[in-house]
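Hi team,

Below is the intake form for Glyceraldehyde-3-phosphate dehydrogenase from Streptomyces sp. R28. Please confirm the fields before the structure is written into the shared record.

FORM ID: S-0412
PROTEIN: Glyceraldehyde-3-phosphate dehydrogenase
ORGANISM: Streptomyces sp. R28
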Amino acid sequence: MTVNDDSFTNWKNREEIAESMIPIIGKLHRERDVTVLLHSRSLVNKSVVSILKTHRFARQIAGEELSVTETLPFLQALASLDLGPSQIDIGMLAATYKTDDRGLSVAAFTAEAVAGATGANKIERGEGRDAVLYGFGRIGRLVARLLIEKSGSGNGLRLRAIVVRGGGDQDIVKRASLLRRDSIHGQFQGTITVDEANSTIIANGNEIKVIYANDPSEVDYTAYGIKNAILIDNTGKWRDREGLSKHLRPGIDKVVLTAPGKGDVPNIVHGVNHDTIKPDEQILSCASCTTNAIVPPLKAMDDEFGVLRGHVETVHSFTNDQNLLDNYHKSERRGRSAPLNMVITETGAASAVAKALPDLKAKITGSSIRVPVPDVSIAILNLQLARETDRQEVLDYLRDVSLTSPLRRQIDFITAPDAVSSDFIGSRHASIVDAGALKVEGDNAILYLWYDNEFGYSCQVIRVVQHVSGVEYPTYPAPAV
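The structure came back. Fields below:
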């Protein structure tokens, strides 16, 4: 047998193992509200090849590839436990098991590591929480995809309605088509049908009412059986407490804005300050995509090295706010053709840092350049640190943060030397540290942070919504603090 034959046989064996994992992962998700992760990446509804690629990706972070032969025993051990709603990272289970010297079996080690999600300790499954989307643009449709994806067990968030302004003939058919196909993010994973007579989109069995209204005051949510719902405003039309309060009508309990909030509206970056949300707070903001990209690594760097001052330059993909061709725009430069120009513009991300990190004493400045790509941006974070360090120390620290810290869902880490922006389309992290581009000299560090300003941000929005709705489940093994 040749070496090539050996490699092919090994691949086929791993395919078979990955195939055997799919029904276990699916059953845990549907029946117990358990999301199986691998180094913070969900394995729910993933194909055989996707599961194998996710295992291989661990090599970029941990230095060596993780095999399905290593993780399958942990998955089998989970299936035998009386688990409650939770997120369980089998990559972390396998990694921590390797360093454990007590001689425990995989089953015993797993039971101990996830004890908080079993027996008397487990969270009881609830009835789920209604969600409503106000607006159905770029972020609205991606948030809709995520809500539908996460409704597998029926006990989490349930997208009940979308509120839009009427758009003429076949409006609902056209909106369903935009949900079904996306030029950047690809096909919707599942099936979508339209019931025009009842103004309903059915996506993977989820019945979503399309409500037409020009103003929040026109909608009676209780007429559609919606109660105690989280409303996600994707329009950006109202950004202060007074404006957003218009949404607080019968059936709506809380309002989450997918843009920076003004005045006293809390700006929340999940992973950094979501635990400061008061239980009775009804209105909050998820800040901007760039704020979500820079605040987690900024916090991580301040925690370890101290940050005295900094500047962020964002090289940002163009957005619908800009013109396709030169035309009038209320901003000076955004009227110039977005696909043909680099456009200097402002960013509020630097000033928003103070809201998310009130204890950070450093002054952070910022500016932005819009460039002719439709998605994925990069933030260049130039920091003066409180102590001197070197490139390797910063790399090792950020790699560890992406693997084991409470910020591991926000910060990713990549070592690929040929990575470019399109490689990060669909990333679920708030930002991705580009290891090859990192520069450190004495007390100065320059971080290059990729981020999918559409999908990665939408994932952060969903995490905030899960938190305030009470369906954000604990992760095991618990991240290092």
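SUMMARY LINE: The chain has three domains: 3-121, 129-259, 289-453.

Thanks, M.
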